[in-house]
Design brief:
Elements: E1 3-9, H1 12-27, E2 32-38, H2 40-44, E3 48-52, H3 68-85, E4 89-93, H4 96-108, E5 112-116, H5 128-135, E6 138-141, H6 144-152, E7 157-159, H7 164-167, E8 184-189, H8 194-212, E9 217-222, H9 229-238, E10 244-246, H10 251-256, E11 259-263, H11 267-273, E12 278-282, H12 286-295, H13 303-308, E13 315-317, H14 323-334, H15 337-353, H16 359-372
Parallel strand pairs: 1-2, 1-4, 2-3, 4-5, 5-6, 6-7, 8-9, 8-11, 9-10, 11-12, 12-13
């Protein structure tokens, strides 16, 4: 009998992880059908997409208001799928406000819920752990400290390692750096959502001009597939960007770059895996920033710094994320090879803490065990 799995991802990074998970689920050999909310990569992996995640993705608290009609429409579709399709399992990938609401609806229909990639409740709104304990059958977490957090709160949990370890491979030995007259390469990674691009790309392009006035630098700009090409074209033309635009994966950029200027988020971990030194930037609306500042309970905003347990990479947040500050930090790092080497060593340690490859296969195993039921002799997670 064909088993039905509904999968919901609302962000570009979640789409990538969801696609890899779908491939792992299909590879198990069980007759299954996967459908739900996601993007291009999940669709390519064989997931029947009912709502395109690009319509739902936002950054910041107040930014949600602008997309509220699309989000509400997406929720109506998601609930209809749960009620009509009656999946054997609902897999939720990050996207907490939307997904926890959907989890409550699924519970009313007696559908098992697996949450893959935890909401950052350890950072803010920790009270949500009570809701998760009530609504989620199992958490599959990707950051090492998350497993301890959930165990302390009585939530069934497994640390599966970070899925990026399935996509990227750490370099062997030290990275080569440009010396003498050869231009160093700086990568610009402004994010995967149009809202991020609008806020961060002008800052990065302005900083690139300032850096170029002082150093012989080659710039590479990452254009995520989820970002509007017309938006990227307009901004790069407006700022006179003369560097190379990379439309594929970030791997080539991260391999070549001496340093990257990167939006806070999952991409900082991709840079860590490549041991590429970085400057982390973050900017949202003023109201979102003030609300977040009052609620966030962690000392760092960058994932690499949270995992390292110290300020490994510079963080430029909100007003500090100015072209002048970005350029100053970049020039200081380029002028100090020892500081770059120390950051590379720290990033190598962060990578070791992310676990071994195989996260998607581990989550697929948990998913199939949940479908089998609590009495299955194959239930081994924990």
């Amino acid at each position: 009998m064909r088993q039905k799995i509904m999968m919901v991802s609302g962000e570009a990074s979640g789409d990538m992880h969801g696609a890899k998970l779908a491939e792992s689920l299909y590879a198990q050999g069980n007759p299954i059908e996967i459908f739900g909310i996601g993007g291009r990569q999940m669709r390519s992996a064989g997931v029947r997409i009912e709502v395109d995640a690009h319509r739902l993705a936002v950054v910041g608290i107040t930014e949600v208001l602008a997309k509220l009609p699309q989000i509400l429409d997406g929720m109506r579709t998601a609930k209809r799928l749960v009620a009509d399709e009656k999946p054997d399992l609902l897999i939720l990938i990050d996207f907490p406000d939307f997904n926890l609401h959907l989890a409550a609806f699924a519970k009313k229909h007696a559908i098992a819920v697996l949450y893959y990639i935890s909401p950052q409740i350890w950072a803010w709104r920790q009270g949500r752990v009570k809701k998760i304990r009530r609504l989620v059958d199992h958490m599959a977490v990707i950051l090492p400290f998350e497993e301890t957090f959930y165990r302390q709160h009585g939530v069934p949990v497994t640390f599966v390692g970070h899925p990026l370890m399935d996509h990227h491979h750490a370099p062997h030995g030290r990275r080569e750096r440009a010396t003498g007259e050869k231009a160093v390469t700086i990568g610009l990674l402004p994010g995967s959502r149009d809202s991020e691009i609008k806020k961060l790309l002008p800052l990065m392009l302005s900083a690139a001009k300032l850096i170029g006035q002082r150093e012989n630098v080659r710039f590479m700009l990452s254009q995520a597939p989820s970002v509007s090409p017309s938006l990227m074209y307009r901004l790069t033309k407006e700022w006179g960007f003369a560097g190379e635009i990379i439309n594929s994966t970030t791997d080539e950029l991260l391999r070549q770059a001496t340093l990257v200027i990167v939006a806070s988020g999952t991409t900082t971990l991709e840079a860590a895996i490549h041991q590429t030194p970085m400057i982390i930037v973050y900017r949202v609306s003023p109201l979102s920033y003030q609300l977040g500042k009052a609620l966030i309970k962690v000392p760092h905003i960058g994932l690499v710094n949270l995992i390292a347990g110290k300020r490994l990479a510079p963080e430029l947040i909100q007003h500090d994320a100015s072209p002048e500050q970005i350029a100053r930090q970049a020039l200081d790092l380029l002028a100090d090879p020892e500081k770059l080497s120390k950051m590379e060593d720290g990033l190598a340690e962060v990578t070791r803490r992310l676990g071994k490859p195989g996260a998607s296969d581990a989550v697929a195993k948990i998913a199939l065990e949940l479908i089998s039921g609590p009495n299955s002799s194959h239930c081994t997670f924990g």
